[in-house]
Structures are given as structure tokens and as C-alpha cells.
Amino acid sequence: MKRSKRMLLRPVMTSALCLSLLCLMAGSLLAQDMAAAREALRNVEGTSRYSDTRMMQQGMLRRDAVDPLYQDPNDPNEATDPDVIRVQEARSDLEKYMAGETPDPNEIKELTQFGYNVFNGRKTRFDPVRNVPVGPDYTVGPGDSLTVTMWGLQNERFSVAVERDGNITLPEVGVLSVSGMPFGTLQDYLESELKRKLPNVRMHVSMGRLRTITVYVTGEAIVPGTQTLSSLATVINALFAAGGPTKNGSLRNIKVMRLGQEPQTLDLYDFLMGGDSSIDIRLRDGDTIHIPIIGDVVGVAGNVKRPAIYEMKGPMTLSAALDLSGGVSYAGWLQRIQIERVQNHQRRIVADFDLSQPLTKNQEPASNNQLATPIQDGDIIIVESVLELEHNVVFLKGHVERESKYGLFEGMRISDVLTSYELFKPQVNLEHAEIKRLLPPDLHPIIIPFNLGKVLKGDEAENHVLQQFDTIRLFKWDERGKSSVFIEGMVYDPNEYQFVDGMRVKDLINAAGGVQKDAYLKSAELMRYYVSQTGVVSEKIEFHLEHALAGDVVDNLQLQDHDHLVIRPIPELEFDRTIEVSGEVKFPGVYPIHKGERLKSVLERAGGYAQEAYLKGAVFTRTSAKEIQQKRMDDMMSRLEETLLTQSSQSASGAMDSEAVSMQQAEVEAQQVLLDKLRTLEPDGRVVVRLMPLEQLTGSKYDMILEDGDTLDIPKTPGIVNVVGEVFNPTSLLYEEGQSLRYYLSKVGGVRKEADKKQLTVIRADGTVVSIAQKGNNRITWDKETRSWYSGGFMSLRLAPGDTLVVPTKMDRVPWMKYTKDLTQILFQIAVSAGVVLAL
């Protein structure tokens, strides 16, 4: 019994301890925040006034930044003037761009909703000034006070109040009804009534103390309910008094309802963007202000003047959305404006638009119809920055007085840059100079030599036409700036060598120390480049290397400047080393491999991928990996058995009644079932590999060196998604493009109560694992697998064909499981890495 009481009290004591720790942490964090706020405001240089608007953009009002400082009057360094705040502004996008910095694409969509920071979610009075003269349209009502001045036969000044019944009492006149009367007509009305009694007396009427009115704020307000305001209050005053709309509330469709009249609509964007206060509405007692749910929205991100999330009002075009954001900044890249869109509530698509045509003042060129593209709810418009790479430019470097860059124009030649000897340093090499040219599409460099002296003498053959990104390099006489040739591959010293007239293949090989014993003598390759006025043309020449080394004139080719010689290794095969390639390749089978051979080589020998190959689902296994995985599993099994035996011994050592004996027996049986299942697991040595088109596989980390016994199986596109574990109907579902994890869970009836929702795991078809512990609940996340952004946390993760969703069991639903939970999770991870899913 005592033991049971201790077990019952333990969670309560733990909760109390956790609560105490949370309180201490909260107090510490609050103190740190206050100290940080004081320090940030105290240490900033400068005394310029910091505007309320900017403070609001950072999520605080001026009083929020200053008031905490007043709480410590003993600190002489703290501010004393609430209107002077020393704050260091973060660098603007303009300042970053001028410094040569380009926005990070991963941060380009960190948007906030426009306009809500003006209210800042804080309830404030924001009443109009009470001593402002009322206008002639002001409606007099109960609670108002009138100041009456009389002169003539009778001089007198007094105040009268409008009673609840709407009447006032004037001396010598009596009771008059004034409620609902415009102030502009009140003067004439009262004076006419007075002259009936006192014809020789004049009168002047002014408003004294104004009444208060009660209005109702409903819907999506921070503080909905009744608001008591001055009778001069407007809708905007009431919104400030209610803390403003929540971010679920509309700023563009606020309704003002008045008894007996049609509702009026207020669009705050006119006020927030243009300062147009004429749209404001004067309130009356009993009015209702309703803030409906926000309408359609569009996000405008990147290089615009005011990136934010905007509420749409009716149909909107791309041009109108850009206008809301203040327009594209001068650093915005108009060649590709992107719109991300959720299509039919099923998938996210991306569309690109070219807005690079000249714009008018309103950014609406007559010939660019793309600006008229309709915008839909939830669209995100992204304006990226122009690249830092300079275009339309050539460079001059080397042995010159001033290295510089020049604007490129059509037909520009070397002589247009090298206009005078004054550009050169002393002893410039007139016989050899170079143009380094970047050839599209991958911008790989080539070297184009030319004779500087001949260019200066007007030789058009040497005076090459320049292209974008060309770099002209001049040399000093004693520098190595002469013509050269290159050799690489199976020679002892692959390098760049000076070119000499009459030089042949054999001469270059001898200069490189000769061929290695593993060189393939039956064939070699020579790459040659021809420079013409239209560009550079490359030529590949195959020749018999053994004949060239023997001096055969046909194969011992004469070299030209900048030739590139490649000596290949012998494609020897070691028949005791093999790899099995199966599935969707053109020629599946067992292939012998030689030492150092890589995956791409075998795939090429297998004929490449078949048409239906599903590269993401490729399964690569390795014997050495299987041995390592088996050893780890054996170690974990031993530790698990020791843990279970220890727990069983502890239970047996205590005094137990019959019910406890039965529970222990059930635990022992369950433990045995678990161990039996774990013993049946056998890793298959899977190694995660991501296949890609063969031309892209070269040089990647997945073009691995092969080992004896490796296997590679490339399946067909499966067309299914597997859902296993604690769901109501574990099964395989047809794959539907763009669908999320939440969608597939709904298709199997959702998770059972025994499911551990904190351990949801997706095993990708390539063997990689994504868990909720990794992704969490981030609003916007980049998915490397589908190469797309998704929002809504882990449940919005999009699955691919062949993926498996694993819903594990709560390990603490059986008492003894708490002793094995950690080890079971470790075994699960090992099994996943081995290509096995535990069905516990």
C-alpha cells in the first residue's frame, strides 16, 4: 500500500517541481529581457527622433521601449525624455545592396501581414482632443452641455445640460427639445424661441462638456465588446480602443452598422497607405463596428519596397499586387518574377513571368500582358535580386598600370581596350598575351593567345573580337606567358608544358616523364581548340598511343597551341570482384569490376537506365555494411536482454500478491515475444545512394568506388505509398501527386490511441528517414526530396512514390516497456538503416 501511494504521489511531485522550475526560468528570462532592453537603448549612439511607425514595425510602441527604463530611477544613464530614444536601426535592404550583399533565398519569404502593427494588439484610448470645436454637423444628444450667452436688455451667461429625454430648460423660455438636432441649426432654433419671450435679447450658443457614446466592437478584434468613447470619436478611434483587428480579421471590409441605415464599409488601406482620413466615419451612440474574417491574401516578397502579406479586395492583377508593395525596387530582377500558388487545394505550383520590358510610371507597359495576370488567394509573388555577377563587361589584368574593367559594346576588339603604350608597365611582353574566355553554357574557361605587338600595329588577324566576361592578361618579358599544351591521366607528371613549334605527342609524353604501366596503349585522346571570329570550336582526336610512342607519323600527331592530351588507364577487369545489377537497366546481370571502378562505369556497361526506372527507389547493398549493422544489432540485443533480466529480478525481489504475480507473468511473456521478433530481424546491408542521370553522377559523392559483392536494384516506379503501424487500416495506398502526410493518414482512418504521435517517421524510397523530431512544426520548410517549399509543419510533408509512413506504438503503454523504450528506439533506427521496418 505504501508503495502504491508513493507511485501515485510521484507524478504530482514531479509536476510541482516542473512548475517551480518553469516559474524560475520565466522570472530569469523576464529579467534578462528587461536588462537587454535597457542596454540596447542605452548603448546606441545618436540622438535623432525615432518614429512611431518604425517602432511599430519592430513590434513595439514608443512607450513600450521607454517605459521600462523609468522603472529604475536610480540609474543615471537611463533616458529622461520619452520623446528622445537612442535606437540603432538594423541595416535596410538598400544599405545591404549597396554593400554588395544579395538577400538569402531562404529568408526572402519571411513576411508579416501589412497594417496590423499600427494597432500592435494593444488597447489604447486614442481619443480625439476634447477641446476641438464641434462642427455644424455634430448631433446634439443627452449628456451634452450647452453654454448660453445672452445680451441686450438682459445680460447673462449660463450652462444647460441636455437631459435624458433630450430636453433642455432655458430661463424665461421653458423646456425645449434639442436631441438629434444638428449643432449648426441649434443657434437659430434657440434664438427664435427666446425672441418670442424676450424680443430685444440676443443669444449665442456653444458646446460645453461633450457627452460620451457607447459603441459595440464585434468580430475579429483584440478586445471585442462595448467601448465608451467621446461623442466626437470615429471608427478608427474605436479600433484603437479595441486594440485593433486580430490577424484573422479584415482591414479592408470593416462594417459600421447603424439602426435604420444600410451598413457602411471602411477600407483601412486608404488610411494606412495614403493617410486619407476622409474615409473615417463619425460614430453615434449605439453603433456597431464589425470586423469580419480576413479576405483573400497575397504575399509579395523579395526586392520590392514594402514586402508584406496583403489583403485583396476583389479581383487583383499582378500589377496591382506589386503596386500594393510599393513597386519593384531598382535591385529587383524583372526577368523572372515568380508566383507560387496552391492549385485546387491539391498541390503547389510555380509560374515564372518576364517583366523586363520598359515600364511606364505606373509599371504597365502596353505590350506586357503578363502584368494583367490574375492573382489568387494565397499566392506568393517573389521578386529576386539581380545577380552580383556583372554583365556587359570585359577585364584588363596583368602587367598594366591599372587593372580595370570596360563596358562591352558590339564589335569591340582588343585594340579598343589597349589603346596606348601608356597602359602598360615597363618591359611588357609584346609577343605573347592572352584572352581568358568563359564559354557557355557552363562558362568553362579557355585561353586564346595573341601577339600584343601585332595588335598595336593594326594586325586584324590578332585583333580578336571580344565577348562578355573576357579577361585580357598581359605579361612581363620574364614571366611564363608563352604558348602551352596540357597533358593529364596516366603519366608521371601531368601538367601544363611550354609549347614549341614542331612539338608532337611523343615529345609531350616524354616531357611528362613517360606513360605509367597502367596506361591504355590502344587509344588516347587529344582535344584541340580552334579560334575564329565567330567563336571557339573544339575537336576530339582519337589516336593509337602505342603507335605514337613508336614514332608512327600518323598517330604521333603534331601539336598546336593549347592542345589537351588525355592518357587513359587500362580498363582491366578483375573477375574475382563482381557486382550484381538488377531491375530497370537495359542489361541486368552480374558484372566483374576492377579495383577503383565506380558506380557510373558499371551503369554505363549495363546500358544505362531503362525507361521506367525509379531512381529514387534504388536499393544498394554492401557486404561490409551488413556486417557492421549485424554487429550493432547483436550488441543492442545483448543490452536489451540484460535490461529485461534486471527489471524482472527487481520485480521478483518484492513481496507480491496474486494479482502482481499475474502481471509479472504477462510482462515476461510480452518480453519474450519482443525478443523473438527482434531475433528474426536480419539487416541486408543497405547503403543510401541517390542515383541521378549518368552525366550528373560523375564527380558526385554517390559515384562511389565499388566493392566485391555489392548489389544494385533499380525498381519500377511503384505508384504506392505504404502506411504501417498504429493506424486503423495499415495498408498500401495509391500514390497521388502533391498529397501530404496528413492526407494519407486520413485515408487509413487516422492514428489509434496507442500511437506515439511524437515519433511519426517517413522512410523515403531511397532509404533516408525524415521524422517529426527533425521537421517539427515550422510554418515554411524546404523539402530536399521533392525540392519544394511546404508549410504547416510535419503533417504537411509531401510524400513520394515508394515512401513508407511509420506510426510507432507508445512504448510506455505497458509498464515494463519504460525500461526498454530507449533501446527499442535504437533498434528501430538500426533496422531502418538496414532497410527493415519493425512491426512491433
Summary of the model, kept short:
Helices cover 25% and strands 25% of the residues. It is built from 19 helices and 39 strands.
Question: Can you walk through the features of this model?
Answer:
The protein is of the alpha+beta class and 840 residues long. Among the domains are: 2-90, no CATH class; 121-127 and 212-291, Outer membrane lipoprotein wza fold like (Roll), CATH 3.10.560; 145-207, wza like fold (2-Layer Sandwich); 297-385, Outer membrane lipoprotein wza fold like (Roll), CATH 3.10.560; 393-476, Outer membrane lipoprotein wza domain like (Outer membrane lipoprotein wza fold like, Roll), CATH 3.10.560; 484-567, Roll (Outer membrane lipoprotein wza fold like), CATH 3.10.560. The strands form 10 sheets. It has a 5-stranded mixed β-sheet with strand order 7-6-10-8-9, covered by helices on one side. A 5-stranded mixed β-sheet has the order 12-11-17-14-15, with helices on one face. A 5-stranded mixed β-sheet has the order 19-18-22-20-21. A hairpin with a 3-residue loop joins strand 1 and strand 2 (156-161). The radius of gyration is 41 Å and the shape is flat. It starts with a helix and ends in a 7-residue tail after the last helix.
